[in-house]
Amino acid sequence: MAVNKLTLLVTGANGQLGNCLRELEPIVPHKFIFTDVAELDITNAEAVRHIMESAQPAYVINCAAYTAVDKAESDKDLAKLLNATAVQILADEAQKVGAGIVHVSTDYVLKGDNPEPQNEDAPTEPQSVYGITKLQGEKFAAANYKHIIIRTSWLYSIYGNNFVKTMRRLGAEKSEIGVVADQWGSPTSAHDLAKAILVAVEKPVYGVYNFANEGVTNWAIFAEEIMRMSGLDCSIKHITTEEYPTPAKRPQYSIMNKAKFANCYGVIIAEWEHSLENVIKQLDK
Ligand SMILES: NC(=O)c1ccc[n+]([C@@H]2O[C@H](COP(=O)([O-])OP(=O)(O)OC[C@H]3O[C@@H](n4cnc5c(N)ncnc54)[C@H](OP(=O)(O)O)[C@@H]3O)[C@@H](O)[C@H]2O)c1
Predict the structure, then answer these.
(1) β-pair partners for 209
(2) What would the pLDDT profile of 165-204 be if each residue is shown by its tens digit?
(3) What are phi and psi of 282, to 5 degrees?
(4) pTM of the model
(5) CB of 81 closer than 6 A to ligand 1?
(6) Which of 93, 103, 190, 223 has CA 20 to 30 A from 279's CA?
């Protein structure tokens, strides 16, 4: 079936996910308008209104966010401005021109004390400023009736700063590093998430979805796989959360059930090891 050409306004396009969407531009029929803060500051309501009116997008895909989880604890106002207030601006201004919003959220909206895979309607109870502000953002995005809110976790890619790139850097410098082994979740390739977003906008069913790569691991095993796949001789010491204190509290279990997304959009979600291998091959090039 032929796919309609959509105009897609991407915010925060210089970040990990935004760059992964840029990669897809040549292979899909859609018209993309890629913006980051220099072209469109999402906290500027007037600028957002102007671009919505002139571009008339089918969707705004919001990849902009305050993602520094620990820094957010002492930078609450800016985290709230970007993760909540600006999402309200985007969702409202999009709705005024009949556009929908794809908004990316996080497993950190959950308390993270349940080892069972959590559905989208599981109770939310964020434990950090980042999680609280992202949940506020979800609520604002949902006020646009054409909303697709996608919660993801442990995002990495060939772009920006992320755990995979940090481990590869440390693994080249040290023979052993300590990594937390009592926080469980699903690493997610931002490249896979970008593809999933485009599948969703092509036959949208509005609502909240979980999307992460399949399989569950902890940060220490994730690090071991990064070292092994990267050919780095660095051993990983399994440590506890208490041994690696951080300003923001992280969920012990970030395990999301992805069946709603997979069934609704008819996609097979890749296992995390498979996607990690693809990204590492790209980084090795
Ligand atoms: N990273 C993760 O592990 C993770 C996990 C779960 C969910 N998520 C969510 O996934 C989404 C994408 O994350 P990501 O890792 O791709 O984020 P990212 O790499 O931090 O990219 C965010 C982008 O937004 C830009 N930005 C900041 N303020 C802006 C403003 N006022 N207007 C427009 N753009 C602005 C940033 O620019 P600067 O770099 O100059 O600030 C950056 O280019 C976010 O919603 C995040 O909350 C991420």
Answers:
(1) 150
(2) 999 999 999 999 999 999 999 999 999 999 999 999 999 9
(3) -65, -45
(4) 0.97
(5) no
(6) 103
